[in-house]
UniProtKB/TrEMBL annotation, chain A:
GO cellular-component term (any): membrane
Annotated GO biological process: proteolysis involved in protein catabolic process
Pfam families named in the record: Peptidase_M48
Domain of life, source organism: Bacteria
Protein's name in the database: Putative Zn-dependent protease
Record text on cofactor binding: Binds 1 zinc ion per subunit.
Gene3D superfamilies (alphabetical): Metalloproteases ('zincins'), catalytic domain, Tetratricopeptide repeat domain
Domain called Peptidase M48: residue spans: 96-256
InterPro entries with a match to the protein in the record: Mito/Outer_Membr_Metalloprot (IPR051156), Peptidase_M48 (IPR001915), TPR-like_helical_dom_sf (IPR011990)
Automatic annotation (TrEMBL), chain B:
Keyword match Signal: yes
UniProt organism field: Sphingomonas aurantiaca
Keyword terms of this UniProt record: Signal
The organism's taxonomic lineage, starting at the top: Bacteria, Pseudomonadati, Pseudomonadota, Alphaproteobacteria, Sphingomonadales
Protein name as catalogued: Uncharacterized protein
Extent of the signal sequence: 1-23
Length: 393, 198
C-alpha cells in the first residue's frame, strides 16, 4: 500500500526519537559542531535512489494537494525560521509545504521535502519553539535517516524470514528482530533531537525552546485525558513498539542539554504572533471543532500565557464552551463573547455566538437581541435566514 | 457516509464483521413508501436505490446508486441525546460529538461538521448555505456543504435536511463527488427528502 511505504520512508516524524547523546558541554563549540554539509546531494546507492524516487513522486502529488496552504507570507515566515535555525546554506534547498491538518506534526522526506502541519504552527508560541521542531526534522534529512531506517527494516525482516525457515522455534529471534527495528527508529529520533538541539544552540534562538515544546505537548495530552475523564500519565521508558522516545524522555534530555550550555544570546524580536495573525482564527477554529475540550482549552491558555487573552483567543474560547454546552459552559461562553465584543475588534460572529449561547441558556430576550445585532451587522450572512427564525420565535 | 478506517488492523476487523452484512444489500423500488433507519421515518423514492446492508450506526441506513463513495444517501432516524451521529471508530482517543436534547437548530450542521472533522480528518469541511426548511412538518434546517477527506484530493459536496423532534435528531444527508456525480443524483435525493414523514 502506497501510504504505508511512504510513511515508512518519510523521515521519521516528530514523534520519533534517537541515539547516542551528542554532548553539549558548556560553551564548547567543538561539541556543538555540525557535520559537513554538501549542497545538491544526489543519492548514491540503489537503495537511496529508490527512496528518493518515491519521495519525488510523493512530492509531486503533495504539490497539487488542496490541503496545502499557499499563502506566501506564512510560507516565507516558516522558511525564515528554518533558515535562522539551520543556517542559510542548509535551508536553501528545502521545499516547505504547510498542510492544513489540525494536529501536532511535521516531517521531512529524504529528497528535502518538509511538511509542516497547521496544528504545529498553532501550538508553538514563538519562533524558537518552531525552530526547534523544524531543526529536528532537518536533522533527519541531513543524517539521511530515511535510507538508514529502510535498510534497518529490510535487514530485520530478512533476518526474521530466514530464521523462520532455518531455525526451529525461532520465536525469540523474531521477537528480538522486531524490537531492534523499533529501537533503531527511536535511536534515530533521539539523534535528530540532539542535532536539532545543536542547530538551535548555534542559532539566535535559546536552546531551552526544544524542551519547552515537549513540556507543552505533555501538558496538552494531560488536559485532553482529563477532559475525557481519562488518566494522565507519562512514562520515561518507551514501549516495545514505540517509534519515538516518550515525550517525558525527550523533554528531560533536551532540558538537560540546554542546561549544559552557557548561552548569552541577545533577545531577538519575535515575529511569530504577527506572522500568525491572519491564520490564528482559522487554525483555532479547526482545533476547537475536534471535540477535545481539555486539549483545546490548554492550547488557548498556553497561547494566552504568551500574548494575553486577545480577541481571537476569547472568541475561540466562547465557541469552545458553547459547543460543549453544559449550562455552566453557556454562562462562561457568553462572558467570553461579551469580553471579546467589549474590545471593539471582535468578528461579527461573536454576536451570533453570544445570542446562541444565551438562547440555549434560556435567556431568550437577551439572546434574540444579540442575534438581531448579528443580522443587522451582517445581513448577507450565509445563515441569516435560519438565524432570523430564531429571532422571531 | 462512509468512513475510511485509518489502521490496517481495524479495517481488517471491520471488513471481517461487515462482509456478511454487505451481502444483504437490497433494491428499493420507486414509488412505494418505505420505513428507513429502523425508525418511524418513511420516504418515497422516485427512482430505484440500493440499500446497503452495512449501517453507519445504530439508527441509520445508507442508500446509493453507484456505490457509497460516489453517491451516498444516509438517513439518521431519531438519534437520542448522548449518542454520536454514527459509530465511533476510536471511542477513547477520537470520541465523536454527541447529540444533545437542548440542541438548537443551528447546532445540527455543526454536529455533522464536527463529526466529519474527527472521523474523516476533513479539516477542509465547509458549510456553504444554511436555511430554514420544514422537515416532516416540523421546524427544520437545510444546509449544503463541501469537504475532502484527509489525504484525498477528491472534492465532495453534500446537502442535508434535518430537525430535532422530541429531543431526537432526524437527518437525511446526500453526498457525492462534486465532479459529475453530485448533480446526477441530486434530484433523486431531493425527491426522497421532500417525501419524508414521521
Amino acid at each position: 500500500m502506497r501510504t504505508h511505504v511512504a510513511a515508512l520512508l518519510l523521515g521519521a516524524t516528530v514523534f520519533a526519537s534517537g541515539a547516542a547523546g551528542m554532548a553539549t558541554g558548556a560553551g564548547d563549540t567543538g561539541r556543538l559542531a555540525l557535520p559537513t554539509y554538501s549542497q545538491a546531494y544526489t543519492p548514491t546507492t540503489v537503495d537511496e535512489r529508490g527512496v528518493w524516487m518515491e519521495a519525488d513522486e510523493d512530492e509531486r502529488r503533495l504539490r497539487e494537494s488542496p490541503s496545502v496552504i499557499r499563502d506566501p507570507a506564512l510560507n516565507a515566515y516558516v522558511r525564515g525560521v528554518l533558515c535562522r535555525t539551520v543556517g542559510d546554506d542548509r535551508c536553501r534547498s528545502v521545499r516547505i509545504y504547510i498542510e492544513r491538518v489540525p494536529a501536532f506534526n511535521a516531517s521531512m522526506a529524504p529528497n528535502g521535502t518538509m511538511i509542516v502541519w497547521s496544528g504545529l504552527l498553532l501550538r508553538v508560541r514563538n519562533e524558537a519553539e518552531l525552530g526547534a521542531i523544524l531543526g529536528h526534522e532537518f536533522g533527519h534529512f541531513e543524517l539521511r535517516h530515511s535510507v538508514l531506517g529502510f535498510r534497518n527494516r529490510r535487514s530485520g525482516t530478512d533476518l526474521m524470514a530466514w530464521a523462520s525457515i532455518l531455525i526451529r522455534n525461532s520465536g525469540d529471534i523474531q521477537y528480538a528482530a522486531i524490537g531492534q527495528i523499533y529501537a533503531f527508529d527511536r535511536a534515530q529520533e533521539r539523534e535528530a533531537d540532539m542535532i536539532g538541539f545543536r542547530y538551535l544552540a548555534r542559532s539566535c534562538y535559546p536552546g531551552s525552546a526544544a524542551a519547552d515544546v515537549w513540556d507543552h505537548i505533555m501538558g496538552e495530552s494531560d488536559a485532553t485525558a482529563l477532559g475525557r475523564r481519562g488518566r494522565a500519565q507519562h512514562k520515561y521508558v518507551a514501549g516495545f513498539f514505540a517509534s519515538h522516545p516518550t515525550e517525558l524522555a525527550r523533554a528531560t534530555y533536551l532540558r538537560a542539554a540546554s542546561l549544559g550550555i552557557a548561552e548569552a544570546k541577545s533577545v531577538v524580536v519575535d515575529t511569530h504572533q504577527a506572522a500568525m495573525a491572519a491564520w490564528l482564527p482559522i487554525f483555532l477554529n479547526d482545533q476547537i471543532k475536534l471535540n477535545d475540550f481539555g486539549g483545546s482549552e490548554y492550547i488557548l491558555a498556553n497561547l494566552a500565557a504568551g500574548s494575553g487573552w486577545t480577541t481571537p483567543l476569547l472568541y475561540a474560547r466562547g465557541e469552545l464552551y458553547r459547543e460543549r454546552g453544559n449550562p455552566r459552559d453557556l454562562v462562561s461562553a457568553a462572558q467570553f463573547y461579551q469580553e471579546a465584543i467589549g474590545r471593539g475588534d471582535a468578528p461579527v460572529e461573536a454576536y451570533r455566538g453570544l445570542g446562541l449561547a444565551l438562547l440555549r441558556n434560556q435567556q431568550a430576550a437577551e439572546g434574540q437581541a444579540a442575534l438581531a445585532t448579528y443580522l443587522r451587522l451582517k445581513p448577507a450572512a450565509p445563515d441569516a435566514a435560519l438565524i432570523a427564525t430564531l429571532v422571531s420565535q | 457516509m462512509s468512513i475510511t478506517y485509518r489502521t490496517g488492523l481495524s479495517a481488517l476487523a471491520v471488513f471481517a464483521l461487515a462482509a456478511p452484512a454487505m451481502a444483504g444489500n437490497t433494491l428499493i423500488p420507486p414509488g412505494l413508501r418505505v420505513a428507513v433507519a429502523k425508525s418511524a421515518m418513511t420516504v418515497v423514492p422516485s427512482i430505484e436505490w440500493n440499500k446497503l446492508g452495512a449501517r453507519p450506526g445504530r439508527n441509520s441506513e445508507s442508500w446509493t446508486q453507484d456505490g457509497d463513495d460516489l453517491n451516498d444517501l444516509t438517513f439518521y432516524g431519531g438519534i437520542e441525546a448522548g449518542r454520536p451521529l454514527f459509530r465511533e471508530v476510536d471511542k477513547k482517543n477520537q470520541p465523536l460529538p454527541k447529540v444533545s436534547a437542548t440542541m438548537l437548530i443551528t447546532d445540527i450542521p455543526v454536529l455533522l461538521e464536527n463529526s466529519y472533522r474527527v472521523a474523516l480528518g476533513a479539516a477542509s469541511f465547509k458549510v456553504d448555505l444554511v436555511e430554514p426548511l420544514p422537515f416532516a412538518g416540523n421546524k427544520g434546517v437545510r444546509f449544503t456543504y463541501s469537504f475532502s477527506k484527509q489525504n484525498e484530493t477528491l472534492q465532495r459536496r453534500g446537502e442535508a435536511r434535518g430537525a430535532v423532534i422530541a429531543g431526537k435528531l432526524y437527518l437525511i444527508t446526500y453526498e457525492a463527488p462534486g465532479l459529475y456525480y453530485y448533480d446526477r443524483s441530486a434530484a433523486a435525493f431531493r425527491a426522497v427528502a421532500e417525501s419524508v414523514r414521521l
